[in-house]
User: Fold this.
Amino acid sequence: MIDISKIRSKVEKQRNIILKKLGRIKEEDPFASEDRSLIVEPGTDAAVLSGHERAVVLEDRLKSDLKEIESALKKIKKGTYGLCERCGKPIDAGRLEVKPQAVYCLKCESEIETKK
Ligand SMILES: [Zn+2]
Assistant:
């Protein structure tokens, strides 16, 4: 059996970590508070620009993680958490411990991976 309350607190903790990281990226991004259309102005410091690009990439990754986590929380609320989105079978509890935001069972995920 899956311990939903345990998973839920784990997922919520992860969500907080990601939200904190996102906030930090905004603070550290040298362009965050400026008009983005000014980025390509000649004479822009290359080091600052690559710092900005790094921040954008990281921000995108964190946002997609956050989406997965939000949808896991939604499923917990609806009571459909832990079911594979592809075949509808319960996802292995051990797998959910490691990756609480998993949406596919191991079998489906490996099938999806090999199709890529
Ligand atoms: Zn499946």
